[in-house]
Amino acid sequence: MFKRIWTGDMIIRHIMSKSGSEPLNSHYYATTYSDVYAAAERLFGSWQCTIEACGFDYSKIKKYQTWSKERVVAEIKAAKANGTPLGSKYTQDNNKPLYMAAIKRYKNWSSALRHAGINPKRVRLRRLMTKDEVREEIQTLFRKKVDMAYPNMRKNHQYLLAAGMKKIGGGSWAEARRVCGIEVNYRIPRHKRETHDLPK
User: Fold this and answer.
1) Which partner from 29, 113, 149, 175 sits 20 to 30 angstroms from 135, CA to CA?
2) 168 contacts 176 by C-beta, under 8 angstroms
3) For residue 159, how far is the Cα from the chain centroid?
């Protein structure tokens, strides 16, 4: 397989292309772009010198590495409060700095979740729910008079919203509600909505 020969200019262009969209700290680059990182260390002497050669303030880049255990836990709790899925694959794809920090501070993602007061098994179960389990959980929320409109579900029950759309709604949250026997028209003002009870 052809192995790319990195030059100083190529490394700088690579880093500049990732600026603003991906972390630029040494740990992230060493694990994500190991060939670029190794070449940078060889050509520039250190990752700090590489970053400074790109015109960046290294102290601001390095701050992404200053993840304490407390910060990891706080970020996980904030993600939960926002309804963000907490599966390891989702976190790796959408919040890699948090995931890598959790691995570094707690050895594995499950351990980090437990320190944040979250049961890892429950997180996995949500991902593995059957169609019947998805339907039952949606109906349970409805019976509790939870707002089933898309914006509220996205904010507070994102995992269930995603599961409903994928497993029983054919990509549509409105269809997922209909499959569950929920016929409220959430597109009209709340005071004009007609609420239909679920089938007994």
Assistant:
1) 113
2) yes
3) 11
